[in-house]
Design goal:
The protein is an alpha+beta fold and about 110 residues long. It has 2 domains: about 55 residues, no CATH class; about 40 residues, no CATH class. It is about 15% helix and about 25% strand. The chain is built from 2 helices and 7 strands; from the N terminus they run αβββββββα. Strands 5-6-7 form a 3-stranded antiparallel sheet. The protein has a two-stranded antiparallel ribbon with strand order 1-4. It is elongated and about 65 Å long. The two termini are about 35 Å apart. The relative contact order is 0.14. The structure holds zinc ion. Zinc ion binds next to loops.
Length: about 110
């Protein structure tokens, strides 16, 4: 049987781990769910009744994934739109395009 790994019990970089719910094959635990997990099951509103040794994905009763919010500033730079992520062009990242949509798409391509 596969063993519960460190990433089934702890969040890596304080952010995400792997779902520790055992998957069964022929009546024996064969592997783990391994879907991205963002914490332990929420006791107050338990959605999954099975055995959860550590972290759990949303489908197995764990918390929903955190949503990262970013601010993008849109401006007209000459005849091009500039979509800026960060304080300024020197320190942040920028995308350019003939339309605001193209500028944002250009920025998304280079964002980490
Ligand atoms: Zn799972």
């Amino acid at each position: 049987m596969a063993r519960c790994g460190k990433y089934h019990r702890e969040l890596v970089l304080g952010f995400a781990g792997r779902c520790s719910v055992p998957m069964w094959q022929g009546g024996v635990p064969a592997d783990f769910c391994d879907d991205p997990a963002f914490g332990r099951p929420e006791e107050r509103q338990r959605r999954y009744e099975g055995y959860v040794p550590g972290l759990a994905c949303y489908g197995h009763g764990g918390p929903s994934p955190p949503i990262k919010t970013v601010s993008i500033t849109l401006s007209l730079d000459g005849d091009q739109y500039c979509a800026l992520y960060g304080e300024n062009i020197q320190e942040g990242q920028a995308g350019f395009g003939d339309t605001p949509k193209q500028a944002i798409q250009d920025l998304i391509k280079i964002m980490p």
